[in-house]
Amino acid sequence: MLKKILLASVTLLSLSGMAAAENLKEFRVGILGGENEADRLRNYQCLADDLKKEFGFEKVSMFPASDYDGVIQGLLGGTLDFAELGASGYAKAYLANPKAVEPILTTVQTDGSMGYYSIMVARKDSGMTKVTDIKGKKLGFADPDSTSGYLIPTVTLPEALGGVPVKSYVASTGFGGGHENLVLEVLKGTFDAGTTYGSGVGDFKDGYTSGNLRKMVDKGVLNMADLVELWKSPLIPNGPLVIRSSISPEMKAKVTAFFKALPKTDAACFSAIEGGDYKGYADVNVDFYKPVIDARKATIGG
Questions:
Q1: Would you say 137 and 124 are in contact if contact means Cβ atoms under 8 Å apart?
Q2: The last residue of a domain, from among 182, 202, 236
Q3: How many Å apart are CA 27 and CA 71, to the nearest integer?
Q4: What residues make up the domain containing 226?
Q5: Is residue 40 part of a domain?
Q6: How many domains does the chain have?
Q7: What distance separates the 2 farthest-apart alpha carbons in the chain?
Q8: Residue 28: helix, strand or coil by DSSP?
Q9: Which end of the chain, N or C, is more open, meaning fewer C-beta atoms within 10 Å of its C-beta?
């Protein structure tokens, strides 16, 4: 009898949990740091409006963290329901707790690829034209949890530098506080060169079709004529849209369907939250990010 009562209690708890997840009154969205907070909130307001309209949420809360780790910790702690992460940020969350969030979608570039590039830039008037010119110079990274702004350069730059570790090749390294700030610090001369990201599709002079450089150009805070490209990484998997794992499968499916349709249902909003031109979204799971997870574990350790 006791066993039956316990089983019944577990079943009721499971059903009530599913119902709670299915009937969320508030949907909490994390927004990665690195760009002006007012710009991030403005770009995401349309998403909040669309989510409320589609799902009937009483409230859609946007949380623009000051850095990448703020969003990662919110996801790990269960205080956020959804976010778009970089591949390295997702790897950090996965290594801390593989059951906290699930990757559901990633962006597809206009050429059909599902990747982007780490791009090292310097001031045009610096006299530098190639990656080996950073020898003995000050190199800036975007954020410790950025894929393109830190992890991938740390792993792949040594090959371009003749096998020498980055920190042994340059005079000093530092962080710019996100991608936009990093580029601004390069322009100011705080760093001689710095790593940011772009689609690699289209022309450098335009800031490519999407990515941080393109977003800065579109906002009018960057003239690409002031920069030179020193290096481009191998292709990096586009970061995932992730959702809290404890949300019901039904709600996960509905949220996934909502985002897959967004490029058609609200193309302007899709462009605003993604920062440039993309074809749409494609399904992904943890397997897509295993190489990045392995690279982060080996290089950073978590």
A1: no
A2: 236
A3: 14
A4: 115-236
A5: yes
A6: 2
A7: 82
A8: strand
A9: N
Task: Choose among 113, 31, 61, 139: nearest CA to 278.
Answer: 113
Tokens representing 29? 């969205």
* Phi, psi (rounded to 5 degrees) for 107: -80, 155
- 82-84 and 26-31 beta bridge pairing: parallel
Q: Residue 41 corresponds to which tokens in the numbers above?
A: 């909130």
Q: Report the alpha-carbon distance of residue 131 to residue 176 in Å, rounded.
A: 19
Residue 62 near residue 48, CB atoms below 8 Å: yes
Within a domain: residue 205?
Answer: yes
**At residue 40, what is the residue type?**
R
Measured distance CA(174)–CA(83) in Å, rounded: 26
Give residue 9's pLDDT. Answer: 39
- Residue 66's pLDDT is 86
| 218 shares its domain with 262 | no
**pLDDT in the model for residue 6:** 36
In SS3 terms, 243-294 reads as: EECCCCHHHHHHHHHHHHHHHHHCHHHHHHHHCECCCEEEECCHHHHHHHHH
SS3 category, 46: helix
Q: Which of 151, 300, 272 is nearest to 210 (CA)?
A: 272
User: What does each C-alpha distance from 188 to 107, 123, 241 come to in angstroms?
Assistant: 32, 9, 33
Q: Same structural domain for residues 119 and 229?
A: yes
User: What is the pLDDT, as a whole number, of residue 34?
Assistant: 66
Side chain identity at residue 202, one-letter code: G
Report if residue 105 sits inside a domain: yes
Q: Please identify every stretch of the chain with a pLDDT value under 50, giving residue numbers as ranges.
A: 1-21
Q: Are residues 133 and 230 in the same domain?
A: yes
Based on the domain organization, do 38 and 139 belong to the same domain? no
Residues 6+ apart with CB under 8 A from 277: 110, 209, 210, 271
Give the CA distances from residue 141 to residues 182, 208, 232, in Å, rounded to whole numbers and listed in that order.
Answer: 7, 20, 14
